[in-house]
Amino acid sequence: MTEALQQTGLRASQLVAPPAQFFIPAAASLQERRPRTLKHGDTFAVFDHNGDVLSGPGSPEGLFHRDTRYLSHYYLTIGGERPMLLSSTLRDDNATLTCDLTNPDLNDETGRCLIAHDRIHMRRTRFLWQGTCYERLAVRNFDEVAHEVTLEIAFEADFADIFEVRGRVRARRGTSLLPEVDGSHVILSYRGLDHNPRSTALRFDPAPAQLEPGKAVYRLSLAPGETRSLFIEIGCDANGAEDPPSRLFFRSLRDARRALRRSSSRAATVQSSNEIFNETMRRSVSDLYMLMTDTEEGPYPYAGVPWFSTVFGRDALITAREMLWLDPAVARGVLLHLAANQATEFDPDTDAEPGKILHEARYGEMAETGEVPFRRYYGSVDSTPLFVMLAGAYFERTGNREVLETLWPHVRAALDWIETYGDRDGDGFVEYERRSDKGLANQGWKDSHDAVFHADGTLAKGPIALCEVQGYVYAARLAAAEIARELGHDGIAQEQARKASELKSRFDAAFWDDELGTYVLALDGDKRPCRVRSSNAGHLLWTGIVPEERAETVIHALMGPSSFCGWGVRTIAAGQARYNPMSYHNGSVWPHDNALIGAGLARYGFREQAARIFEGIFSAATYIDLRRLPELFCGFPRRETQGPTFYPVACTPQAWAAGAPLLLLQACLGLRFDAEARQVIFEQPILPEFLGEVVLRNLRLDGGTVDVALRRSGTHVVADVLRRDGPVRVIVTT
Question: Which domain holds residue 387?
Answer without folding.
Answer: 266-669
